[in-house]
Amino acid sequence: MPETFKLRGDNGRQLVRSQLFNIDNGAAATIDEALLCHSRRVTLLSAYVLYSGATTGTVAAATVGLGVAVGGVTVAAATALENAKAIGSKTALTLLITQLPANTPLIVRHTGIAATAAGEYRLVVEYEVNND
């Protein structure tokens, strides 16, 4: 379940983070999760993978992307996870768009691998709610 956090002193900046994804959940097996659907326009500031468990083995075939529909990658293209990442390491996603209209869902898609590999992560998105 996504969790949202308001950052102190950052004028409305907020974070939302996804569920904990297990990287080796099955070859091409996908998991979609709605992260956000705000009643106001949202400006996306950054998105990144935050590794919660160190990655071992080859995990680069696993990907994560962001879209406004299930399986979509209109917000951030599918980004490969990285091998040999320590707990607390990040992998940035490149945002293709930064504005979400009111009542538009933001959906993360995790695509796993079948190889025996270790690692878990959450997708974190930093955003601001617009007051217009």
Summary of the model, kept short:
By secondary structure, the chain is an all-beta fold. It has strands at residues 3-6, 13-17, 21-22, 30-36, 42-56, 63-67, 76-80, 90-92, 99-100, 106-111, 118-129.
Describe the structure.
The protein is built from no helices and eleven strands. The chain is mainly β and 132 residues long. It has one domain (3-129): Jelly Rolls (Sandwich), CATH 2.60.120. The strands form two sheets. Strands 1, 2, 3, 5, 8, 9 and 11 form a seven-stranded antiparallel β-sheet that branches. The protein has a four-stranded antiparallel β-sheet with strand order 4-10-6-7, with no helix packed on it. The chain is elongated, with a radius of gyration of 15 Å. The two termini are 28 Å apart.
